[in-house]
Amino acid sequence: MREELSNMVEIAYRQVTNPKYNETRIELSHLHKELNDGEDSNKIMFELRKSLLQADPSLNLKNRISGLPLEYRNLFHFIDSKLKKLMQKYWINTINMDLSL
Description:
Layout (H helix, E strand, L loop, with lengths): L1 H14 L6 H15 L4 H13 L16 H31 L1
Helix pairs in contact: 1-2, 1-4, 2-3, 3-4
């Protein structure tokens, strides 16, 4: 998963060159480096998700992701699906802990 995420971040960084996304590109580069340096991939996915949601604040909330370039959308959907699974696992564990008390 880490390698796939790293590849997707790199593709998004290289393919989206519109100056409108310069801040996002800087963040992608920084997070890509952290990912390759062994930082926690879950933490990085949360940061990437936040960065992509803020990539184009001129878009209304409904179109915040669908209005982004394809590479950013693909990265967001990959991350979002992983984070949803992570959160489901967290809540299941939390509920199980509560039930055992």
